[in-house]
Amino acid sequence: MRIHRIILPEDSDSPLYLKLADALRRSILLKEVTPGERLPSIRRLSDTLNVNPATVAAAYRILEREGWVTARAGSGVYVMDRPVDAGGNLDPAVEALGASTLMDLERGRIPPQGINMAAGTPSPRLFPVTEFRSLMDEVLERDGGWAFGYQESTGWAPFREALREYAESALGIRVSIDDIQVISGAQQGIDLSAKALLRSGDPVIVERPTYRGALSVFWSRGSDTVSVELTPQGMDLGVLERRVQAQVPRLVYIISRYQNPTTYSWSAEALEKLLYLAEKYNFYILEDDLLSDLYYGKAPEPSCLKAMDRQGRVIYIRSFSKVLMPGLRLGMLLVPPPLRGAYEAAKRSTDIATDGFIQRAVELYLRRSYHIPRLQFLRAHYGALYRSIIQEIDTRLVPLGLHYLPPEGGLHLWLSLPDHLTGSQVHSAALAAGLALIPEAVYGNAEISSGEKRADSHIRLSIAALEKDEGPRAIEILEDVIRTRRV
Amino acid sequence: MRIHRIILPEDSDSPLYLKLADALRRSILLKEVTPGERLPSIRRLSDTLNVNPATVAAAYRILEREGWVTARAGSGVYVMDRPVDAGGNLDPAVEALGASTLMDLERGRIPPQGINMAAGTPSPRLFPVTEFRSLMDEVLERDGGWAFGYQESTGWAPFREALREYAESALGIRVSIDDIQVISGAQQGIDLSAKALLRSGDPVIVERPTYRGALSVFWSRGSDTVSVELTPQGMDLGVLERRVQAQVPRLVYIISRYQNPTTYSWSAEALEKLLYLAEKYNFYILEDDLLSDLYYGKAPEPSCLKAMDRQGRVIYIRSFSKVLMPGLRLGMLLVPPPLRGAYEAAKRSTDIATDGFIQRAVELYLRRSYHIPRLQFLRAHYGALYRSIIQEIDTRLVPLGLHYLPPEGGLHLWLSLPDHLTGSQVHSAALAAGLALIPEAVYGNAEISSGEKRADSHIRLSIAALEKDEGPRAIEILEDVIRTRRV
Question: In the beta sheet, which residues pair with residue A331?
Fold first, then answer.
């Protein structure tokens, strides 16, 4: 690297390390340094530029966080062959926790050659970029600047029509387009639900454990969250009914298929019973459907709770983050008619409307039937990964006392640890050996003031960002960790 | 119209009316039918195509809703000379009100040959689509699927750096990139502020009148809003201090430049005094900057309150909707250091992160210095419109007893009506004559339980969506309305 090219501007008063990071970023962008090239050592660069070594180290850290370079232990800092964004594979659950250790886990602290089984989002390598690009071009050809105007708060009408068809054909849900509210990602669906339905103090019942990002929303709204243990067939409905009798909730929040983190799916009977309770006691169910169509054997039957909903008890959130691309920030909300007005008002005051350009591109995507082949591709890709990883687990980990239920779909596995191990212990040891995963402790307690210790007897392994050949090595690392800990 | 050109594809299973709407839309885009041309009657088209008349009617309705055609009573359906998107020109203030009459006003009820001085957003005709398209292409070439991964909740670091430079060079605001939170449009900036700062019952002081979409957010959060009259130099600060002494607010919300709807700009002295009060009584100021850089004479000095903020009292929202493209849903929030954590958590639980692809494209847009020439173009374009319209007003309306303060910037004019007229009367009569505008009554009262009558002595005229030659006709209509009403 030609260090003489690095010029640190004196005109701005931004910190020196940021100026240096800028200069280095520019060098990478201008191809003055090439992918794979080693950057100067911290000492050498600090000597040459006459700056503090800590400044160089900080600049390198930023570039690493942004994905421009990678640090290899004992060897140096190397330019990456493309910018892997720092946030590229963040898991909302981990993100929403905001704990710095977990941020570290997802970012810098994953060892350079490490395996990422923490991330819950498919690798950008699998995104249908080429197709999507041509659809975006087509939208711009057709609509010009009109693609970038404000949209209706409920969503662009032709996109909602495409979503209606998709809900009917792919999920067996029959709705009118007036029931469809376009949202900027599934997280917004939870936020809008809180705004439309919850006042401070309103009780909400959730599964235990559950997605942390949902709890944050309910808490921020001043709700009292109460949890009911999730069994492999759904919530313990006896407990649920007693809770409801004690205090009728405004909302029950569930992830009915391949739940995050447990991977459990509700049985048809449990869903039927839940609907019955909702009608009997007059509450709504917020169903968060992350990836019900990512199954590896039979399609789940019913596809989701919403498909069974005849009385308008279910508000349904459909994310496109997992099966299309998370950065699009796009999703669909199905809203029972009496609640439409409240949701539209909530949407309007939240962000007026969702990006209309992206709605137009995804409308074409659905209408041109790109989606079904993509789902087939994802099922094949992840199905193969899933089968190979459970085979490794059965061979190597089950004999050591770990157990799990094969979810037959979704992107996660939920392993129950032997009694003498906690998720956090396994997480630390695995991370040191080059494998990132999520310990149960991350999910915490739903009851804000709960004095109970956080449960920590499981780990979540995700195959979302796993490369084809990494599975055996990952399970080998886990085997080592568990064998060592056992001694 | 050559109906034989209409071919309804048989391969897709989308409803027939949508296929027909698609085919007709294509004909309009390909100029097979020309603006002003009459489409075949429902009966004739249904006969020719051998489809149900209801199918044709439904297709026409969709095209009308999308703005491609307009139906004239008793005459037929005509092709419009441009696609006025259904949502394309909605004013967030009107949107946020949600009153169906006002929706009508912005949409279908604007007479076919009408003039739209209600819309607060620039016409899509003015959007820099060509430049933006090539920047999007460049992002996709460079980053591929990584452009569509999750971003960091605070925003993509290089974009935040570009925003930092922009804030410093264009607005005279010096911040570090850690102070910058990327948001999905200015409305989200208000929503995040409410989440980060307000608990149920917290008092918020606002200008009277003010942007309705802000009130909705504060109300949804359970805040008590109190208003202080806005004078042409800013809030009445004597009244403000007494209100603050009675109850210290958590937040004071202001639009310091070319306020919506009054067009008033705070004087430097008033801003200085407001900052002083914020420090003395310990509250935060939420400054909503819609378009401080759209000035037609001298640049405002200071550019905004944030540029004067030395104690970290000001949370600053910067929209790109007006000066770039509203559909991008992108903005910047400047957050004082002690509040960063609360804002980041609020962002995460609201929508995890803003679309990273759009952030990348706008990063290039700023970095390649597209923005300054665009602002110059907009200043020239709107400056000319502004000068011609105030000349018309001075000549035709001022003699009739209307008065106003020339704002010398922004997209609106705020006309004070003679005593015998209300804004709503003028609005109805103007609409009937083909001119859409916004009456003061729309802005309502900030105090939820206020028994006071809504003020209605002004009208807001916007030049945002006005075509160059429409100004004189618009003011002529107003002149007629006022002369007639006087009798």
Answer: A183, A319
Query: Does residue B124 have a pLDDT over 60?
Result: yes
Q: Is the pLDDT of residue B100 over 60?
A: no
Alpha-carbon separation of residue A119 from A462, A479, B152, B322 (angstroms) = 6, 20, 14, 37
CB contact (8 A) between residue A220 and residue B195: yes
Q: Which of A131-145, B28-42, B279-293 has the lowest mean pLDDT?
A: B28-42
pLDDT digits (tens, 9 = 90+) for A76-85: 888 876 433 3
Does the beta-carbon distance from A327 to B220 stay under 8 Å? no
User: Do the beta carbons of residue A65 and residue A49 sit within 8 Å?
Assistant: no
> Is the domain defined by A11-86 classed in CATH 1.10.10.10?
yes
Residue B9 confidence (pLDDT) above 80: no
Candidate CATH numbers 3.10.28.10, 1.10.10.10, 3.30.990.10, 2.60.120.200; the one for domain B3-79:
1.10.10.10
**Confidence at residue B431, expressed as pLDDT on a 0 to 100 scale:** 86
Q: Please report the pLDDT score of residue B14 as a whole number.
A: 62
Whether B121 and A150 lie within 8 Å, measured CB to CB: yes
What is the pTM (predicted TM-score) of this model? 0.81
Element spanning B12, H or E: none
- Fold category of B129-369 in CATH: Aspartate Aminotransferase; domain 2 (3.40.640)
Average the pLDDT over A114-129 and give the result.
87
ipTM score of complex: 0.79
C-alpha B296/C-alpha B318 separation (Å) is 19
Q: Helices in B319-416 by DSSP H: which ranges? A: 340-351, 356-367, 371-392
Residue A90, H or E segment: none
| Phi, psi dihedrals of residue A295, rounded to the nearest 5° | -110, 155
CB burial readout A269-299, b (16+ within 10 A) else e = ebbebbbebbeeeebbbbbbbbbbbbbbeee
Query: Quick one: closest CA in B to A62, which residue?
Result: B157
Shortest CB distance from B185 goes to which of A188, A327, A351? A351
Residue A10, pLDDT score: 62
B306/B296 Cα distance (integer angstroms): 21
**Which of B350, B354, B462 is the best substitution to test chain A (most A C-beta atoms within 10 A)?**
B350
Q: What is the pLDDT of residue B93?
A: 34
Task: Say which range, A345-354, A478-487, B197-206, has the weakest mean pLDDT.
Answer: A478-487
B422 Cα distance to chain centroid: 24
Return the HEC string of A365-385. HHHCCCHHHHHHHHHHHHHHH
**Sequence ranges of the domains in chain A:** 11-86, 103-126+373-486, 129-369
Handedness of CA B358, B361, B364, B369 (dihedral sign): negative
Beta carbons of B187 and A98 less than 8 Å apart: no
| Low-confidence winner among A62-76, B238-252, B305-319 (lowest mean pLDDT) | A62-76
* Chain B residues within 8 A of A355 when measuring between CB atoms: 184, 327-329, 355, 358
Question: Where are any strands of DSSP class E within A342-456?
Answer: 412-416, 435-436, 438-439
Distance CA B235, CA B229 (A): 6
CB-CB neighbors (< 8 A) of A147 in chain B: 129, 327
Each residue of A304-353: pLDDT tens digit? 999 999 999 999 999 888 888 888 899 999 999 999 999 999 999 999 99
pLDDT, residue B67, reads 67
Average pLDDT over residues A136-156: 90
How many angstroms away from the CA of A407 is the closest CA of chain B? 25
Say which CATH architecture domain A103-126+373-486 belongs to: Alpha-Beta Complex (3.90)
Task: Answer yes or no: do A187 and B127 touch at CB < 8 A.
Answer: no
DSSP label at residue B69:
E
Nearest to B65 among A157, A349, A355 (CB): A157
Residue of chain A whose alpha carbon sits nearest to that of B106? A152
Angle between helices A129-143 and A356-367 (to 10 degrees): 110
